Each structure stands twice: as C-alpha cells, then as structure tokens.
Amino acid sequence: PPRRVLLVDDVLTTGATATECARTLLGGGVELVSLLTAARAVAGGVPARCYPRSDPRPGLWLPGDVPR
Q1: pTM of the full structure
Q2: Please, are residues 8 and 22 in contact by the beta-carbon 8 Å criterion?
Q3: Nearest-CA neighbor of 24 among 44, 5, 8, 51?
Q4: Is 28 helix (H, G, I), strand (E, B) or coil?
C-alpha cells in the first residue's frame, strides 16, 4: 500500500465515514491519512435570508452579506 493517502470529500458532516475510511487504511498498512473537504456542515438552522425565493432553490448568500 502507499505510505500516505489523501481522502477527498465534498462535505464533512459527522466525520464518521472519514474516520472509518482512515481506520481501515491505517489497518491495511498506510502510515498517514489526511482529509481534504470542500465544505463542513455546521449545527443549527440556515438563516431565512439564505432563501429569498419562494421556490426551494437556495439563493447565494454568504455570512456577512447584507440581507436581500
């Protein structure tokens, strides 16, 4: 097996899947497992101003933006 592995995930929620993947890889002889994610889920609801439309498609909103 390779000495180092980089796991890539689109969204990290609880981390359970990444943990299990890393555990399996380390058990298989990999020395180092790193994780790269594009986004991370956070606790709590999404601010209502993130969804300015009446349809279910989210509008683009970033923290610190002026509410639309």
Answers
A1: 0.60
A2: no
A3: 5
A4: coil
Scanning 1-68, the segments in alpha helix (DSSP H) are 16-27
The residue count of the chain comes to 68
13-46, pLDDT tens digit by residue? 888 899 999 999 999 999 999 999 888 777 666 6
Which residues have a Cβ under 8 Å from the Cβ of 27 and sit 6 or more positions away? none
pLDDT in tens, 7-17: 999 888 888 89
The type of residue at 48 is A
d(CA 59, CA 16): 29
51: three-class secondary structure by DSSP: coil
